[in-house]
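We emphasize that the prediction below concerns an isolated chain of 220 residues; any contacts that depend on oligomerization or on bound cofactors are therefore not represented. The input was used exactly as deposited, without trimming of termini.
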Amino acid sequence: MEDSYILSHVDHTLLAATSSWVEIEKLCNEAIKYKTASVCIPSYYIRRVHAAFPDLNICTVIGFPLGYDTIATKAVAAQTAVEDGANEVDMVVNITDVKNNEYATIRTEISVLKQIIGKKILKVIIETCYLTEEEKINLCQIVTEAGADYIKTSTGFGTSGATLEDIELFKKHIGPDVKMKAAGGIRTREDMVAFIEAGCSRLGTSSAIKILTGVSSEGY
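Result of the prediction step, given as a token string:
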């Protein structure tokens, strides 16, 4: 598998609380040079990145990383993100609703955000490390029913990240129009190849370019 093909699946990511503009700018320049699928950045930086790099595909996160913001809060955040220039939104599902078996509320939350962003891409982070197999299966069905574009494994801030076992489980239970994104703990070229070969259309990682090209991403 060619490095360029791998990088075309990567959401080049910087979501650390200490992210500086110098680091964000470097991330964006790398994404352009190596033709990654997008940059995934804090919502705070969307407007500035869009102004500085108007042709760059911008992804951001909503309800990140814990997911328990209200639907209204997530809705405003999603609306602001797309108005500022984001083309993709990665939302964290409300895991407290999962644990309370409030799946109708989760369906509503996802549907509301998809309505707000319209044709832009919505990825739903279910944070697999906190879920039982039954909960993961239920969420595959909810994500499908609610009209999201992607199901995503993890924030990268939980107790563990993506696993191939979870991707295989997703494949069995998501609808045909739902794609998969693996994120969290993707540290080697072999990891990236394995997740792509398993069917992931996107990979969320801060280290892909460093791994594949040797370019330092120190501080990311």
